[in-house]
Specification:
The complex is a heterodimer of chains A (304) and B (640). Chain A is of the alpha+beta class and 304 residues long. Chain A has two domains: 200 residues, Multidrug efflux transporter AcrB transmembrane fold (Up-down Bundle), CATH 1.20.1640; 78 residues, 2-Layer Sandwich (Alpha-Beta Plaits), CATH 3.30.70. Chain A has eleven helices and six strands. Chain A has a four-stranded antiparallel beta sheet. A two-stranded parallel sheet of chain A has the order 1-6. The longest helix of chain A has 33 residues. Chain A is elongated and about 80 Å long. Chain A starts with 10 loop residues before the first helix and ends with a helix. In chain B, the strands form seven sheets. A four-stranded antiparallel beta sheet of chain B has the order 2-3-1-4. A four-stranded antiparallel beta sheet of chain B has the order 10-11-6-21. Helices cover 46% and strands 25% of the residues of chain B. Chain B folds into four domains: 183 residues, Multidrug efflux transporter AcrB transmembrane domain (Multidrug efflux transporter AcrB transmembrane fold, Up-down Bundle); 81 residues, Alpha-Beta Plaits (2-Layer Sandwich); 86 residues, 2-Layer Sandwich (Alpha-Beta Plaits), CATH 3.30.70; 134 residues, Gyrase A, domain 2 (2-Layer Sandwich). With 640 residues, chain B is of the alpha+beta class. In chain B, β2 and β3 form a beta hairpin. In chain B, α6 crosses α8, α13 runs antiparallel to α14 and α14 runs antiparallel to α15. The chains are: A alpha+beta (304), B alpha+beta (640). Chains A and B meet through β5, α5, α7, α8 and α9 of A and α9, β18, β19, β21 and α12 of B.
């Protein structure tokens, strides 16, 4: 590829776009909130496959009659499969609820194959929410530290802001569309951090190399050259990753779809952010070649 | 010259001048080939699909399971029209491989009805199992397939919370009993009370300061560091001695409680009859139980959930003080029993459900350990003709709503029900063997199981339960495999189209990476889950990144250098970038591993291993392959 796109010319548009997206995400988060799944809220979920198609409305009636009025009933892929969810009810031990609901539906409708059944106690859910948030923070902190050691503070800041940008927007989109956020989606979010980081580091690495080898050019130009050099690679890697995610979305089934969706969005945004957010921030921080000058020979002895 | 040295040395390049034809050392090919061969050997067992099998183990039967037994079981099944694939003798018993899941369930029911006659103590444990079909020559190499997680194999996952406060309270009660009896022996009078024990400490009040001081000298020798804190305090307007447990001692109690509960649960899980159960501590106060192949959680819970024990006590005599007596109803009549236990269920080593040979009424035969046997003998020998009561204590968790500081909070409380199940006149001195009569068949059956399974140090309640049906498990495997195949195919085609000859090399490396990844996971005994498969798929997409980095660098270098130099520089200069990028991704994967249990951990494990193996294949192996194609000749054009 022999590209010479002036990425940095559009950087102000990109800044506005990113800020708008971030604001929208924060608003969605504050206003709509995350649709936390069973893993985080606690409660009961049960999926049954009946021998003949069943009407969710009928299922709801039966459950209401048997005293499970707060149950949410939903048809899954095929019409014979039904998912029943019961939110946690304070003061009631729900550990046997799944079995009771199953018995009630088998009585009312007919034999059913148990696909899956889950019960998560309220304390477990709360703990996971805490642990999950902590994990995100620890991940960002460690990344910051590593890049500060391997690069410089300005690169570290650029990388971490890019990561936060990605995470906030992915979570924001989950809020906007009301997609369920479970443990698997949290794992996807952390994988997005890993992926976006990978991209950002590769670009930063080249920017650093070019700052050292190319003289008498303005930082904007050097960053543009670096981005153009890496564009082919960035796009190819994003493409191969998107290809396998596509495979997961097509073949993986309902249980993995949330995970694959979160990652797909993350990869797209991660690719964008490694071009526009991380590099853009370097310019805003007024990066100079002195920041990256090779240490003198003496200082380099024994160092990394 | 870019700094391509890491930790002072260039790991993958050499210092050969760029204009000379570069020779790739032979030992590198040997290593690459060696890794490939070992990888194939250890990944291979995963290609043999497991059989639906039934496993038979001895429970109470005196028969030793041998080849004859196995052959008979096979004949029985074939006689009923169930085709048997293979019947083998394993370390644990017989394993009968069948052709389908339907046959498996039928075979289990058949064997159950033949081997465990109704009304008798269970003779054999018959469990459903997915048996690996790894050929012998691979098993000789220690090669075995990955274990499938519950979301792929089907089964139940439980998490239990151990109620630590109750273990601590139990300990404090013991301390209070011990302290007051020490004081009585030394004739130091304390003010009797019903509630010496609070949630954290014990208070013993005294009428005046001299008694308090006296008590302090009596108790001082038995209580103190490192296990206790003992001090003189004022308590509810009286002078008192406060005894509390030190943090070290509290930790010890918690550890002991968890350990004892684990042992108890393992025994109970064995009662359920599962081929390969897992019972493991999770964090400081939780226990995780996994029962592969089990579908009915209510049945499993009925056995796991019940926490019962027994207390054996003498009936109170007229001379006993009211504070030592507990009154319990029995068949409509109040019975006065001493509060002091002779023995408890803890001292029972074995219990069998049986029937009285004369009256044919249900009963439980018990055996005590040496302490229990001695105690019951000492208590009953001088008391022939006096009555003894047996209290059945059952505990179950109840969630209660409470208002604390104006906020509604939930608390799981343990509800204890105590029932006097037997009051009988002592006919003769009892010893190590004893029996309980006067209970229903169902109670006898459960009591026997619960006594055998051992008492639990602290009550537990379920905080998480996940069941995956067998049909969904199978579907998850199929879908996961399909996703891997489609993902691999799409990436492979793309790489060939985009990088031509180098694309073929990248594909070879990718394939090798999959083999090595699966081999490492099998060797480590890692569990494959659905998110784990997602991790493998993602690895496929991301593993080519290293090759993409190298190849795009080579393309750049080709613009200013001859092919041989371009290839060399491409590999050398891309290396640092690859290392940096992968190390940071590895960080994130390790954080995932640290926070995650279950699905997240499965994903993190495959991702971490995938990162390491992909570094090896896409740098070390691909460089070898590139040199095999372009290395030893004058190259004019490179297909990239």
């Amino acid at each position: 590829m022999n590209l010479n796109i002036d990425f940095m010319a559009h950087r102000h548009i990109a800044t506005v776009l990113s800020v708008l997206f971030l604001i929208a995400s924060v608003v969605a988060f504050a206003w709509l909130g995350v649709n936390r799944g069973l893993d985080f809220t606690g409660g009961v979920l049960i999926e049954l496959a009946f021998e003949a198609p069943v009407d969710p409305v009928y299922v709801r009636t039966i459950l209401a009659e048997d005293g499970y009025g707060n149950a949410v009933v939903q048809s899954l892929g095929s019409e014979t499969e039904v998912q029943v969810r019961v939110p946690p009810v304070p003061g009631i031990d729900q550990s046997n609820l799944g079995n009771n609901i199953r018995a009630s539906l088998v009585d009312g409708i007919g034999a059913a194959d148990l696909r899956r059944s889950e019960f998560v106690g309220p304390t477990v859910g709360e703990e996971l929410t805490e642990k999950g948030g902590l994990a995100l923070l620890v991940a960002l902190g460690m990344v910051l530290l590593y890049i500060m050691l391997r690069f410089t503070g300005k690169f570290a800041l650029g990388a971490v802001v890019a990561l936060m940008h990605d995470v906030v927007i992915v979570v924001g989109l989950f809020c906007m569309f009301g997609w369920t956020f479970n443990l698997a989606e949290l794992a996807a979010l952390l994988a997005v951090i890993g992926y976006s980081l990978n991209d950002t580091i590769v670009v930063s690495d080249r920017i650093r190399e070019n700052f050292r080898t190319i003289r008498r050019r303005k930082p904007v130009e050097i960053i543009n050259i670096s981005l153009n050099q890496m564009l082919g690679r960035t796009l190819v890697t994003s493409l191969t990753t998107l290809l396998v995610l596509l495979a997961l979305l097509i073949a993986g089934g309902e249980q993995i779809s949330g995970f694959a969706t979160a990652l797909t969005i993350g990869v797209v945004i991660g690719t964008y952010s490694s071009i526009y957010v991380a590099a853009n921030l370097l310019l805003m921080l007024n990066i100079q070649s002195e920041d990256l000058a090779l240490p003198t020979k003496d200082a380099n002895e024994g160092a990394v | 010259m870019p700094d391509n040295r890491v930790f002072g040395q260039n790991l993958f390049g050499t210092k050969a001048p760029a204009d000379q034809p570069y020779r790739y050392p032979l030992w590198r090919y040997v290593i690459a080939l060696g890794v490939l061969v070992i990888g194939i050997l250890y990944a291979l067992p995963n290609l043999y699909p497991p059989d639906h099998a039934v496993q038979i183990e001895v429970d109470n039967a005196s028969i030793v399971i041998g080849t004859r037994f196995t052959a008979q079981a096979r004949d029985l099944l074939e006689g009923e029209g169930i085709e048997v694939k293979r019947a083998a003798l394993t370390q644990r018993g017989s394993q009968i491989h069948l052709f389908s899941e339907i046959d498996q369930v039928r075979a289990k029911d058949l064997l159950e009805s033949r081997l465990n006659p109704v009304g008798m103590e269970r003779q054999f444990i018959i469990a459903l199992n997915l048996a690996p079909t790894t050929p012998q020559w691979l098993r000789d190499l220690g090669s075995k397939p990955m274990t499938l997680g519950l979301d792929l194999a089907g089964g139940i996952h439980f998490v239990l919370q151990v109620d630590m406060q109750s273990a601590i309270t139990k300990q404090l009660n013991d301390e209070a009993d011990k302290a007051t009896s020490l004081l009585r022996e030394a004739n130091v009078r304390y003010i009797p009370s019903e509630d010496f024990v609070s949630e954290v400490d014990v208070h013993i009040p005294f009428a005046d300061a001299s008694r308090q001081a006296e008590a302090m000298t009596v108790l001082g020798s038995s209580y103190g560091p490192p296990n206790h804190i003992i001090e003189e305090v004022e308590w509810r307007g009286a002078l008192a001695i406060r005894i509390a447990l030190t943090q070290d001692r509290l930790n010890e109690i918690e550890d002991a409680a968890i350990e004892q509960n684990l042992t108890g649960l393992r025994n109970r899980v064995n009662e359920i009859g599962v081929a390969e159960p897992l019972v493991q501590r999770l964090g400081s106060s939780r226990i995780v139980i996994e029962l592969p192949g089990v579908q009915d959680s209510s049945e499993a819970k009925r056995i796991l959930d019940k926490f019962a024990t027994l207390e054996f006590r003498l009936e109170a005599s007229v001379t006993d003080r009211p504070s030592q007596i507990e009154v319990l109803p029995y068949e409509g009549v109040d019975v006065r029993l001493l509060k002091e236990n002779i023995v408890t269920g803890d001292n029972v080593t074995d219990a069998q459900q049986a029937r009285d040979p004369e009256t044919s009424l249900p009963q439980v035969n018990m055996q005590f350990d040496s302490i229990g046997g001695e105690r019951i003998n000492r208590a009953t020998a001088p008391n022939i003709g006096r009555r003894m009561g047996i209290i059945f204590i059952e505990q179950r968790p109840v969630v209660v709503n409470e208002v604390v500081n104006g906020e509604r909070v939930e608390r799981t409380k343990i509800e204890t029900s105590r029932r006097l199940i037997s009051v009988a006149t002592i006919q003769g001195a009892l010893s190590y063997n004893s029996r309980i009569t006067g209970i229903s068949v169902r109670d006898a059956q459960e009591l026997a199981i619960l006594l055998r399974a051992g008492a639990l140090a602290a009550p537990m309640y379920f905080v998480e339960e996940r069941t995956v049906g067998a049909s969904l498990g199978d579907e998850n495997i199929d879908r996961g495999m399909l996703a891997v195949v489609i993902g691999l195919a799409l990436v492979a085609i793309f790489m060939i189209v985009y990088y031509k000859v180098f694309g073929v090399i990248a594909d070879i490396c990718l394939t090798m990476n999959m083999i090595v990844l699966i081999a490492v996971m099998s060797l480590l005994g890692a569990t494959l889950t659905l998110p784990g498969i997602a991790g493998i798929v993602l690895t496929v997409g991301m593993a080519v990144d290293a090759n993409v980095l190298i190849f795009s660098r080579i393309r750049e270098e080709l613009k200013r250098s001859p092919p041989a130099t371009a290839i060399k520089n491409g590999y050398d200069r891309a290396f640092v970038t690859i290392l940096d990028a992968n190390i940071t991704t590895l960080f994130v994967a390790l954080i995932l591993l640290a926070i995650g249990s279950g699905p997240v951990a499965g994903f993190a494990v495959t991702l971490s291993i995938g990162i390491v193996t992909s570094m090896f294949t896409s740098i070390f192996v691909s460089r070898g392959l590139v040199h095999l194609v372009y290395g030893n000749r004058a190259v004019r054009t490179v297909w990239i």
